Amino acid sequence: MALSPQQAIDVVNRTFGRHSGYRALHAKGILLKGTFTATPQAAQLTRAPHMQGAPTPATFRFSNGSGNPRQPDYAPDPRGLAVKLYLPDGARTDIVAVTSPRFPTKTPEGFIELLGAQSGGLAAAWKMPLFLARHPEALAAIPRIAPSLIAPSSYAVASYYGLHAFKWVGADGSERYVRYTLAPQAPGSRLAPWRARALGRDYLREELRERIGRAPVRFTFEVQIAEPGDPTDDPSAAWPSRRRRERVGTFELTGLETERETGDDVLVFDPSRVSDGIECSSDPVLLFRPSAYSESVARRTAPQ
Ligand code: HEM
After folding, report:
1. 19 in catalytic set
2. Which domains does the chain carry?
């Protein structure tokens, strides 16, 4: 039987605890505001309104992947960068990316099984061989993911990957599948565990607040373009590195966002919320996410 969003979030809550008011995953985060400005190359690849060159206002959220809002920043974890773009006609479109260069599995069931297998710590390690037998793609993906879990010196210096393929449709009707990378313009590194620990539990937020007070933070938006035969429905499988890449724009983060998520305001970043000129692929992980995010929203906004 197919996994339901409720079952998925039950497993997530069992793994990380249920924390009222917080996202079931990526619970700890920080909001910023700024703009996105596309390069001329972008308009050749898609007719999407935010890809035509005019600056588009944006909200950004950096996060740690854990569902525990009290997990220290130095703990190994994928980090997230989510972007909401406010389009001229009042619509919104979201981009959601993580520091892992691949997703561990090609199905939502596999991902939830992996989370469940981790939840018991070492006592549950016996579950892993079973998991790997059922999801062999994870054998190749997990070694590529492991180094990306090491804490970075700043949220502003990591690369973030969109992982899913999206179809970009040009003004002339031409089509191509692309994958997103948000590449940092600021230099930085990953930290040895003892060094990150010395910076404190909340050093990533503190560093970002201090950094953004001095100057804007920028990321280059790059797309990798698929060729026929490249998998467009499997976020655990990389495309050959020689595939063409284009710089399609710059995200400029200019300050902290203090108006959103106050009072009754609910902010959700949903990668399937695309615009004209951009279509979701048939990736089952991508297609499962909106219902899982809605379930998380229902639980985080439920009256106590
Ligand atoms: C079946 C697969 C997945 C499940 C079940 C899942 C589940 C979730 C849930 C429940 C949330 C909290 C939503 C909310 O309350 O607003 C979340 C947030 C997030 N997820 Fe996923 N996710 C999946 C795949 C992915 C993938 C592939 C990526 C990266 C491309 C990703 C990146 C993120 C990020 C960055 C956030 C935080 C967004 C924010 O700042 O609001 N997730 N995920």
Report:
1. no
2. 28-106+150-284 (2.40.180.10)
